Amino acid sequence: MAEAADAAETLEVLHEVSSILHTGLDKESLRVLIGLCESGVNPEALALVKMVFVTVGTTLFDELIRAADQDDVLQRLWQLGYRRVLMQTGKGAYQPAEGDRRCGMHVSCYRFKPTLAEDMARADLIISHAGAGSIMEALTLAKPLVVVVNDALMGNHQSELARAMAERCHALAATPPRLARALSADALAALRPYPPPPRADAFLLVLNEEVARDG
Amino acid sequence: MVVLGSGGHTTEMLKLLQGAPTDVYAPLHYVIAATDHTSADRIPHADAAPGSAATVVHTVPRSREVGQGWASTCATTAVAMLRCAWLVACVRPDVLIVNGPGTCVPICACVFALKVVAIRPRAKLVFVESFCRVETLSLTGWLLYPLADRFLVHWPELAAKYPRAEYVGRFF
């Protein structure tokens, strides 16, 4: 009895430490990790587990989650060295089966969080819907990025940004049915970071011109 | 005067204006839609110095909420137009900066009208197309293309297609 209380207290303290360090781990994940370490797993090996973050943002995009949940995509990710997939599923109806899967991947998901910044920062690969906000966030973090365009939307201008980034080798572009094919080691290796603009105040310069002309 | 939209438009606009010297652009008027509860909290300096007029926030009704019927849309559009006209007449901005939310169209029309009737002949209308637009203009962009004094785009592809559109380098 006292042992269980001790364990709970230890977990409590570790969770506090872990939130101070912004690890983004919830109590359940921590408990599993501690269990693994206690049974002799090297903690450094755990830290090396590569994670894929799949996000639909605030959009309704079941096709992306469904595609990412297919065995061919999970297998491809396993071949590329990833072992964990975390999916942010938003308001979609499709929910992947969580836990360890046949293809060796661990899948977990949630619908919304106030901010996705932590999961973005922890990810080793981001598979995102084609919203400008998510694309920019992933590129600013210099993460390998696969942008999945919702090809079911009519007159979807989002494909423009995805294509522009793909042409410049800052991201891979795909559609849900072509996601597995887009995930190739060569294509991912060819990605180049998106550099910050040469002048952060380029817009303000234009504005200054207009204000000066006015004065 | 700056028109903020919602969500992505607001994010882009605040990024564009990041580091803007508040003393040069004072007073800076922000316009937000009345039902937009998130943009107001994201405006910098909005509550920094109470009593100072460096940053002013105005709200205008939206002409159409998502999912609103067409009959009532006519009525709400008329109300929104009048409120925008009143706001523009009161503030008489020297420079109007917009990046494409639907809310900005009536305000642009009013500022343009002030220019035409020579009340504010030197007022400048600066339009920035959305970062998402690489090859085609948005509906708002298309509407404001002939009216804007500076029509800025994020991608050289757009500037090549539309002669009045300017690509002055990357903003983001």
From TrEMBL, chain A:
Protein name: UDP-N-acetylglucosamine transferase subunit ALG13
Subcellular location: Endoplasmic reticulum
Protein family: Belongs to the glycosyltransferase 28 family.
Enzyme class: transferase
Keyword hit for Zinc: no
GO molecular function, one term: N-acetylglucosaminyldiphosphodolichol N-acetylglucosaminyltransferase activity
Domain Glycosyl transferase family 28 C-terminal: 51-196
EC number: 2.4.1.141
GO biological process, one term: dolichol-linked oligosaccharide biosynthetic process
Keywords per UniProt: Endoplasmic reticulum, Glycosyltransferase, Transferase
Entry-linked Pfam families: Glyco_tran_28_C, MOZART1
Entry GO terms, CC: endoplasmic reticulum; gamma-tubulin ring complex
UniProtKB/TrEMBL annotation, chain B:
Residue runs in coiled coils: none
Compartment(s) where it occurs, according to its Swiss-Prot or TrEMBL record: Endoplasmic reticulum membrane
Keywords in alphabetical order: Endoplasmic reticulum, Glycosyltransferase, Membrane, Transferase, Transmembrane, Transmembrane helix
Transferase listed as a keyword: yes
Xref: Pfam families: Alg14
GO molecular function: N-acetylglucosaminyldiphosphodolichol N-acetylglucosaminyltransferase activity
Any one of the GO BP annotations: dolichol-linked oligosaccharide biosynthetic process
Topological type in the membrane: Single-pass membrane protein
One Gene Ontology CC term in the entry: UDP-N-acetylglucosamine transferase complex
Similarity section: Belongs to the ALG14 family.
Protein name: UDP-N-acetylglucosamine transferase subunit ALG14
Source organism of the structure: Tribonema minus
Lineage, highest ranks first: Eukaryota, Sar, Stramenopiles, Ochrophyta, PX clade
